[in-house]
Amino acid sequence: MDALPEPDVIAGAFDTLRVQSQRIANVGAVQNQQNILAVVQALGQQIHDLGQQIHDLGQQTHHRIDGMQQQMNQRFDTLENRQNNFEIAAVNARLFHADGAAILQRPVDIRNGGDIPDFPLTHPQLYTIDDATADAILPALGIHLAPNTPLAVKRESIARKWILK
Q1: Region 92-109: what's the mean pLDDT?
Q2: For position 145, what pLDDT does the model report?
Q3: Other CB atoms closer than 10 Å to residue 159's CB: what's the count?
Q4: What is the pLDDT of residue 97?
Q5: Contact, 163 vs 135, CB < 8 A?
Q6: What local confidence, expressed as pLDDT, does residue 1 receive?
């Protein structure tokens, strides 16, 4: 994003407006009328330019606030999705301990709240997923492992996040 003008820049623009207003006040009515007209026109242009600068500053500020609001909303959504998954994992822990082959609740993708494609529905199915599927599931659960992590470690990491073992 573009940097916003410093308050000193805005204050300087208002100071210029003040100085030009004083010039007009100091120009005698008897002086050349063309000179007075030129000063008034120049002042009018400066007022117009200042108004445009203030408008642009308002637009930039509005744009920055919108961007920050979107970032905050994304963070809140991610936190909400993580909380959802924690609650699902707690339910799954109870189901799993009652019956290791039970169909468990599927967690959501913490990045967008959507379904996680190819997510296994049972604990035994988890241990049949391949490396590519595990690599797709891990970031959706917010799990970040080192490159070349063995598949067994990936599966166990998913299970811990999914079932609260």
Answers
A1: 82
A2: 95
A3: 18
A4: 74
A5: no
A6: 52
Side chain identity, residue 28 = G
- Tokens 């920050």 sit on residue: 68
Contact 165, 90 (CB under 8 A): no
Ramachandran quadrant class, 148 (left: phi over 0; alpha: psi -120 to 50; beta: rest): left
- Given a contact cutoff of 8 angstroms between Cβ atoms, the answer to whether 158 and 127 are in contact is no
Q: If we measure between CA atoms, which residue out of 55, 27, 53 comes closest to residue 40?
A: 27
| Per-residue confidence (pLDDT) for residue 30, from 0 to 100 | 46
Which residues, other chains included, contact 85 with Cβ-Cβ below 8 Å and sequence gap of 6+? 107, 108, 110, 141, 161, 162
- Is there a contact between 20 and 42 (Cβ–Cβ < 8 Å)? yes
CB atoms under 10 Å from CB of 110, counted, come to 22
Q: What does the alpha-carbon distance between residue 164 and residue 76 come to, in Å, rounded to a whole number?
A: 23
For the chain, count helices (H), then strands (E): 5, 0
Of 153, 155, 109, residue with least CA distance to 128? 155
Whether the model pTM is above 0.90: no
